[in-house]
Structure prediction request, 638 residues.
Amino acid sequence: MKVLNKSKLIEALNVLSSQQEVFVPIQRESQSGYFSWADYQPERDELMLEALNVYQSPKNVVLPQTERMYGIISQGMEVDIDQTFEDAHPTLIFGARGCDVKGILAMDEVFLTRGFVDSFYQARRANNTIVANACYAPGPNCFCTAMEVDPVEPVGADVIIHDCGDYYAWEARTGKGEAVTAQLDGLLEDKEVKLPSAQPFQLQVDYQGVAEKLKDMFDHSLWDQMAEPCINCGMCTYVCPSCYCFDIQVKMFGEKGYRFRAWDSCMFEEYTREAGGGNPRGASKERFRQRFLHKLEFFQERYGTPLCTGCGRCIIVCPTDVNIARIIKAVKEAEVE
Amino acid sequence: MKEITEQIQTIAARLFEEGKIDIFIAWEQGELDFQTKAYVARSKEDAKNLVFNEYAIYNTANMLLKFRDGHERIGIAVKGCDSRGIVRLLEDLQIKRERLYIVGIPCPGLKDPLAAARNYGGFNRQTEPDSLAGKCLECIQPNPVICDEIIGPEQSPRQQGDRFARVKEMEQMTPDERYDFWEKTLSTCIRCYACRQVCVACDCRTCIFDEMKPQWVGRESSTTDNMMYHLVKHAHMAGRCIECGECERVCPVNIPLMLLNQKLIKDVGAFYGGPEAGLQYVEGAKPPLSVYRIDDPDSFL
Prediction:
């Protein structure tokens, strides 16, 4: 098997970075997320490949938090589009965990299938390669296997690397993966490897039958109880590797301007506010319920897989201790008339 | 703290039994030690779930906003900072005093459940110290400023040294240095609005940032829009911030939001004097910058 010696990791990232923009998990002062290797400064940044994960998922590589779509010139009642900002520069996500790869696969379903193709997403995703970092030691809030993720051999990865102590075992899985492997010609060595053994999960979550059961639980009292502490901030949705909801807005400076899209959150009141002022999800509980029904029921119904990937981020960051694993458990145990 | 828990449970049970309250707001214990969160008891039986422990840091006054339009008579347990939040809501006429039965807890200083959750979660390589929360080390008012009943002995403020030292350091910077600092710091904001949602002084029914016609602040997570969001939000907090520190505590990217609030506290104190926000409740009294008069002597505004 091919291996990348850890002593050559920085060199490898430099080489990859010369061919495409490489995003790696980094602790950058107070931020923890995927940042471009080209901006890496050792005195400020800490490479987090050996940590369990980082707080902000790599979804921003394929769906940036804010992205310009096209430029506008308005003259009187006429509007011209003078440019589009489609971004097709090649990118590489290096070191994503299986849960985060699954998040991107979920977005692929939304933006590329069922006859709806989002050209902005497609341009970025077509030129994006994923090097996944096999996960052998799940954390206390991890439950990805319950959400159909294989943490050691994640589906959707172009290359899988396995941390074997002094080196990463390097396994190309797709044509894109082979191309990236070829870029590292001379840095990878052949070696007999012994892969680590996977540690057991500390958190047990049983998702079997939850989507089905939720169909009859829209008005269940469980939502009142679960939503009570929630303050409807958008933190869970923004750290989530699979939350993809966005809004499209316009910024004008005199006659020139641009249309952009920005992440939005079902937790916000204005998210579902209608032009006439009405709001089908005006109450806090209704927004809370929507988030979990989308994750656990609606997406499953439409795409055959849950939208939660079991990464555990929202469990850690929630200021009011809302816990999706606990919600799945409560749904399982709930009595439905 | 066990005694305090027992006393809260006893008081809440008594109030339910006497028919004086419909709900009681305090904290409950989650699965793990540090997972203490806000809780609403609705019956005498529920009162058994109430706790006060070293992680009961969440500002219970914020929970009152969920009930401001109702008629429930509310029992509520408050620490010093939470009680200042109640004063804020009373001053803003968000809730009537007669709806509240306030149980005060002089606060010994608490730990941050979010820091504990991050230590436990395994994402951080370096764990954060298991000590009192930053906001508790800066506390000037551990004892409740308004309450109907008090549990436990008075506590002394934990804030030491020059309270505004960090602010003064900032004031010493040149305008360019200051701008660079805030530009860099605020550019990391992910606009999750947790700082707004957790703030008891943010009690506007429709927040300016949620208005669409017109849209006052852009939705891009750009330095410009982020700065606009934070500067407008904090300017709104002038004379209103009760210094509970929740905004800074919950921020997922650790923006030092209390530095902005403290600057405003210092300036409002210097310009207008008087007690700081939420430190005393006088019926009908209005804090600085919350009164509009058509004959205002200042021609600006």
DSSP finds eleven helices and 13 strands in chain A. Residues 85 and 268 of chain A are 28 Å apart (CA to CA). The longest strand of chain A covers residues 66-75.
